[in-house]
């Protein structure tokens, strides 16, 4: 067998301490590249100093924290945030340039955060790759109800600048074919899905009467819509439960639960947990109520555990994974009543749950880490 070429890989991302999808995927890939391919992997972060990685990192993966602390800008007003952002960007460019010249990597990968503005201008000799984990329509999106004219103009200008920066990359990696179509003005686009973090030997078989959802307590995940749908289900099915797992602020969603007089013992808003696989295996089916998705890590994790998925047909993740009617069910995006009806359909048809769950296991095998890592390996070596 031909030995692996020993490549030096650097990832640039804000932090590793949060239990998010980007953090999970990046950790998974970095560990695999270091442990299986023998790559020299370094992750450079800007925030979360003195905080450990939420997901376990291989001892072979190095982490460099530049301590720029962009997170402190979250508590500033918009004008002050823009001013301090410019200052911190200069600090970041200087510090990252210094590290890349020190490490001298073969490949530098941006997760399309703050470094995308200058990563291609750093002439350290490495090939530059950008990987995006969200669809274009919602990337740095300023929604109308949370914006003003200045912010809208800023966002429009920012997107024009982003396109120019992305065009300079040696490769741009998106998660689905739908995403490739959305970036048609960008050359050298590759499609590489996210990998499965696990593929359990055993699958869900207890069929506990429980519905599960996993993801951060952010607006994009649509938990307000899920809770409202659950308020319909709760009245018809007194022996079923709903568990949501994620990090972030839960107070808004707790108020919705209380306002709808939902039984908190049957609708539980849990913190994120590391052994989420155990919770999948102790559930009947998974629900994804995201308003938009880059891919849907929770979807493929649940399917690998033998769970069918009920998901809003949002951009773009669910439809690129789920075969509607075979291993899951897609629902009109944002339609709460239809969501509740679809969930009730599965509740009343346990044999369908079992049949879809078996097909889900087969379908999702295409996201096995060995398969996805090989796609990255071929890309790296082609550069």
Largest sheet: 7 strands, parallel
The backbone outline, from C-alpha atoms, is globular
Cα Rg: 21 Å
| Average pLDDT score | 92
Strand content: 5-15%
By CATH, the topology of the largest domain is Rossmann fold
Helix content: 25-40%
Main CATH class of the largest domain: Alpha Beta
Please work out how many helical segments DSSP would assign. 12
- Structural class estimated from helices and strands: alpha/beta
Looking at CATH, the homologous superfamily of the largest domain is Glycogen Phosphorylase B
Strand tally is 13
Residue stretches low in confidence (pLDDT < 50, at least 5 long) are none
Subunit arrangement of the protein: single chain
Number of domains: 2
Strand order of the largest sheet: 3-2-1-4-5-6-7
- CATH architecture assignment name of the largest domain: 3-Layer(aba) Sandwich
Task: Walk me through this protein's architecture.
The chain is of the alpha/beta class and 383 residues long. The chain folds into two domains: 8-195 and 368-382, Rossmann fold; 210-366, Rossmann fold (3-Layer(aba) Sandwich), CATH 3.40.50. It is built from twelve helices and 13 strands. The strands form two sheets. Strands 3-2-1-4-5-6-7 form a seven-stranded parallel sheet, with helices on both faces. Strands 10-9-8-11-12-13 form a six-stranded parallel sheet, sandwiched between helices. Helix 5 runs parallel beside helix 6. The longest helix is centred in the first third of the chain and has 26 residues, at 78-103. The model has no long low-confidence stretch (mean pLDDT 92).
